[in-house]
Amino acid sequence: QGNMAFTGKYEFEGDENYDAFVTKIGLPSDKIEMGRNCKIVTEVVQNGNDFTWTQHFPGGRTTTNTFTIGKEADMETMGGRSFKATVKMEDGKIVAEFPNYRHTAEICGGKLVEISTSSGVVYKRTSKKIA
């Protein structure tokens, strides 16, 4: 469990259960289409317990969440809504409770593995390290 375990740039590799999950959390269909097999690049800068988590979408749109483990932070959902959350670290995983889903992120074999769960629907996204 190195301190800088998350720092890096990761490119979308694959996902499971995307449609079931985004339908469950109520994303509008245009956003669902936009996000399907989207080559999102996730850039993580970790400095101790401080994180800057940026997602670069094709076409130039960017979402950045900045947070400190254990402190409340202003965050943004997949659908672009703002909310407050306290991000925790559990067994080397980053855990955040979004308004209608629970999100975890971990580094597994050099890949960024993110799992979002909403009412029993589990969405898994895997990204490979590119930098």
TrEMBL record:
The record's subcellular location field reads: Cytoplasm
Supply the alphabetized keyword list: Cytoplasm, Lipid-binding, Transport
Query: Which GO terms label this protein's molecular function in UniProt?
Result: lipid binding
Q: Where does the UniProt entry say this protein principally localizes?
A: cytoplasm
Alphabetical list of Gene3D superfamilies matching this protein: 2.40.128.20
Q: Which GO terms describe its cellular component?
A: cytoplasm
What region holds the Cytosolic fatty-acid binding proteins domain?
8-25
Alphabetized InterPro entries for the sequence: Calycin, Fatty_acid-bd, ILBP
Task: Give the protein family.
Answer: Belongs to the calycin superfamily. Fatty-acid binding protein (FABP) family.
**Which protein, by its recorded name, is this?**
FABP6 protein
UniProt source species: Himantopus himantopus (Black-winged stilt)
